[in-house]
Amino acid sequence: MSSCNIQDVFGCYVFSEEVMRERLSKETFTELKNTIDKGMPLSAHVAEAVAEAMKNWAMEQGATHYTHWFQPLNGYTAEKHDSFLSLSKDGTHAITEFSGKSLIKGEPDASSFPSGGLRATFEARGYTAWDCTSPAFLKEDSSGLTLCIPTAFCSYNGEALDKKTPLLRSVEAISAQAVRILRLFGDETTNRVSVSCGAEQEYFLIDKKMWKKRPDLVFTGRTLLGAKPPKTQEMDDHYFGTLKERVSAFMKELDLALWKIGVPAKTKHNEAAPAQHELAPIFETVNIACDHNQITMELMKKIADHHDMVCLLHEKPFAGLNGSGKHNNWSLTTPDGVNLLNPGKTPRENAQFLVFLCAVISAIDDHPALIRASAANAGNDYRLGALEAPPAIISIFLGDELTAILEEIESGEEHHDHFGGVLDTGVSALPNLPLDSTDRNRTSPFAFTGNKFEFRMVASSASIAGPNTVLNTIVADSLCTIADRLEQAKDFNKELNALLVDIIKKHKRIIFNGNGYGAEWIAEAKRRGLPNINNSVDSYRAFIYPESIAVFEKHHVYSETELRARYEIKMEKYSKIVGIEAQTLLQMLHRFIVPACMRFADSVAQCIVNVKATGLSCDTLAAEDLLRKVSGGIAALHKTMKKLEKAIQKAENFGDDYIAHANFTRDSLITIMGEVRKYADELESIVAKEYWPIPTYSDLIYSV
Ligand code: ADP
Ligand code: MG
Question: Which residue of 91, 132, 251, 280 has the fewest CB atoms within a 10 Å radius of its CB?
Answer without folding.
Answer: 91
